Amino acid sequence: xxxxxRLTSFFxxxxxxxxxxxxxxxxxxxxxxxxxxxxxxxxxxxxxxxxLYTTERAAATVGAQTIARNxxxxxxxxxxxxxxxFAAQAGLARVRIHSAHGLLVDVGDKRAVAPxxxxxxxxxxxxxxxxxxxxxxxxxxxxxxxxPGAGVVVAQGGRLLATNVGVAPGAALPKGGTVSISGTKYRxxxxxxxxxxxxxVLVTALSNLSAxxxxxxxxxxxxxxxIVGFLLLALSFSVLASRALQGQLGRFLQAARRLGGGDFSxxxxxxxxxxxxxxxxxxxxMSNQLAGRLDELSQERxxxxxxxxxxxxxxxxxxxxxxxxxxxxxTAIDGVQAEFGRLSVRSDSVEPLVETVRVGxxxxxxxxxxxxxxxxxxxxxxxxxxxxxxxVAAIALGPLEAGGRAHGLITVGRxxxxxxDDDRDVLRSLSSQATxxxxxxxxxxxxxxxxxxxxxxxxxxxxxFQELLGGEIxxxxxxxxxxxxxxxxxxxxxxxxxxYGHPQGDVVxxxxxxxxxxxxxxxxxxxxxxxxxxALILPHTDLEGSYAIAERLRSSIEALRIPxxxxxxxxxxxxSVGVAANTDGDKEALIAEADNALYAAxxxxxxxxxxxxxxxxxxxxxx
Length: 623
Known about the structure:
- 52% of the residues lie in helices and 22% in strands.
- It is built from 16 helices and 23 strands.
- The chain has a five-stranded antiparallel beta sheet. Strands 13-12-16-15-14 form a five-stranded antiparallel beta sheet.
- The longest helix has 67 residues, at 3-69.
C-alpha cells in the first residue's frame, strides 16, 4: 500500500468515523422528536375520546334514571312498544332492561355505546330491574372525534362498530403503536371502556403520521446534506495533503501523528524556502483549518441542542398561543441569523394585524418592513425586500381554513448578506409548523367546548348544567344567598316532530334556546337539560324574582314565530315552566322541586308558570 493511500485512509478514519457517529446521533434525535410529536397528537386524541365517552355516559345515565323513575312506563303489557316510543321521543339510541332472570327487553341500535345504568328497587330494597341506556351510536361517536389528521375506530368483541378511516368490516382491527390502514400510517392509542352486559368497547384514536413525518424528513435531509458536505471537504483536504508530501517526511510524519491524536496546537517549524518549507506551511494551514472546522462543528452541535430544547418548549407551551408564536419568532431569528424581527398577529379573522413582540431595533426600516409584510400577505406566503445595506423578509402564518385570512406575520431582517434559498426554506418550514401547532391548539379548545356544549342549541349540556348548579349550590351553602332554578318543557313537541319532521323540531329547539339566552341575565346559566326540556340557573335570585323571569321567558316563547321548513307559514309554540328556589344548599331537592312544578304546569293546561311552593300545596292536597 502506497504512502499516499495510507495517509488518505488514516485521515479519512479520524474524520469520517466521528462524523458518522454524530450523524447517527442527529438522526436518532430527529426520529425521537418525530415520534414524540406523533405520540402527543395520538394521546391528545385519546384524551378527547375518553372525555367524550365519559360525557355521553353521564348523559345516558340521566336517561336511565328518567326511565327508572317512570313506573308507569315499566309496568303492564306492551313494555317493548312503550320503550321503543319513549326512546324515539327522548332521543335515546338504545334501551335495555334486565331483571334477576335475564334480559327483558332490548330496543334501539345494537351499535350504541357509552351506556348509563340505573336500577329500580322493590319495597324490600332488592333490585327488580337494571336499566341500561345509550344516547350515542358508535357512528355518531366516531363523527364527533373527526378532525384534521385524526381518525377513530370503535370495536366491540372483535366486531367493527364504526370508523372514519378505511377499515373494512372483517379486517384486523388496529391496536396500539404504529399501524397502516389503506396505505396510510397512523399512530394508534387504544382504550377499553366498559359496556354494561356486553364486552368492553375498544376505542382506537389514530393520528396521521404524515404531518410529523414530513418535518422529520426535512430535518434528516438537512442533517445528511451537512454531513456529506463536510465529508467531501475532508476528503479534498486529505487528497491535497497526500499529493503535496514527497520524499522523506520524518518530522512531518511525527507532526501527522500529533494531528491524528487531535493535537492542533503545535505547528511544524518551517526552515528555509525549499519544498519541505512549503509543505510545512501547507500542513500548518491544513491543521488550522481542521481546528476551525471542528470548532464550527462544536457550534453546530450547540445549535442542535438549542433546537432540541426549543422543541421541548414547544410541547410544553403547545396550548399557549402567545408563547407559541413568540417561540416561532425567536426560532426564525436564530434559524436565519437575523439581527431583528417582529411578530404581528390578529385576535380573530376580522381584526387587523397588531405587533405583539419585537426583537432588536427597527428604527428607520418602517417602509421596508411594511413592503415585505404587504408582499407576504398578497402572496399568502413569503415576501422579501432586498437592499444594499439591510434585507427584510416576512412570512405569513397560514389561516385555520382555506381561503381565510392569515393568523399573523413573522418579519426578520439582517444587514449585509441577502437571504438565501435555504433561509427561505427555513422560514417556510417554520411557518408551516407554527400553523399546524396553532391548528392543534384550536382543535384542543374546540374539543373542550364540545364536551360542555349542546351541539344543536349552543347551550350548556346536561353535564355542564350539573357542574354549574353544583358550583352555585356550594356558594349557597357557604354564604346562604338564594339560588333560583327554572325548568321549561316545550308543549306538544312530539306532535311537532310527528307532523313536520325532526328537522323542523330542531329549528324549534334552536329558536326556544335563543329566546332563553336573550331572556337570561349575564350571571344566569342557560342549559339544555335533555330532549325538549331546558333549564336556567339564577344565582342570587329568590322565588319571586325567579318567577318574574320565568314569566318573561314564557311570554317570549309564546311570542315566537318560527318559520316552517316547507315555506308554508310559521309555527307558534308554548312552554310549561316550573320555578323553584332555596337557600339550604340541596341540589337534588332544588331540581326535584322545579321539575315537579314543571309537570304541575303540564297537568294544569300547559303554557303556564308554576312555583314550587304551589306544587307542594297541590301534592299535599291531593293526598
